[in-house]
Amino acid sequence: MDDRPVKRRYDAEQRRRRAGERRMRVVGAARALFAERGFSGTTVAAVAGAADVSPETIYKAFGGKAGLVRSIWQDALAGAGPEHAETRANAVAASGSNGVQIIEGWLRLALEVAPRAVPVLTLVRSAAEVDPEAAELLDEIERGRAERMMHNARALEAGGHLRSDLSPAQASDLLLIFSGEFYDPLVLRAGWDVETYVAAMTRTMAAALLRRP
């Protein structure tokens, strides 16, 4: 019996597993170093050393520092659940007949993402002031955030929840602010607990975005 195809599949699975483990190790090391040293103070060589890989491996897999931060950002957006947070956000919009419930569901997902995403966004915004590579990455991140909020605004409109005097573009602008800009000042700085934050932001967003019953 020829077992070579089985062996090739096994080898391929082993390579994928090792590559996945290596990626997690690199991204974890990069996350820690960027948090400690900032964008300009972190080098690819330092990340490579912390992750026990070569700098060439990082350049090949990530393209450099901006690519590392991009991967950290993408991991943050996935959330901590078994499914990607955006997939779950879509499910919330599709299953919710009540606009308030949809907004509350989105807020809870945003709180799941925020502890990892907000530090990355803060890092890139700060670095973008002096680093062209970081500025380009910030533009990419902000475009992605805007596209996602437009998707959510259109979901509210399609479900008949959006106020008639708001366009999807205007609703998207409001969602962009509501979705993350209040987390840092209210939760991280002022020390609001999660339930107080969710309740207050749900009321605020509902008043600003939803048509009255």
Overview of the structural elements:
By secondary structure, this protein is mainly alpha-helical. The chain folds into 2 domains: 1-63, Homeodomain-like (Arc Repressor Mutant, subunit A, Orthogonal Bundle), CATH 1.10.10; 79-213, Tetracycline Repressor, domain 2 (Orthogonal Bundle), CATH 1.10.357. It is built from 10 helices and no strands. Helix 1 (4-41) packs across helix 2 (44-51) and helix 1 crosses helix 4. The chain starts with a helix and ends with a helix.
Spatial shape: globular
Tally of extended strands? 0
Number of helices: 10
Proper CATH architecture of the largest domain: Orthogonal Bundle
- CATH topology-level name of the largest domain: Tetracycline Repressor, domain 2
CATH class of the largest domain: Mainly Alpha
Radius of gyration: 21 Å
**Count of domains:** 2
Structural class: mainly alpha
Give the rounded overall mean pLDDT.
92
| Largest sheet descriptor | none
Distance between the termini: 70 Å
Helix content, binned percent: over 70%
**Which ranges are low-confidence, i.e. pLDDT below 50, for 5 or more consecutive residues?**
none
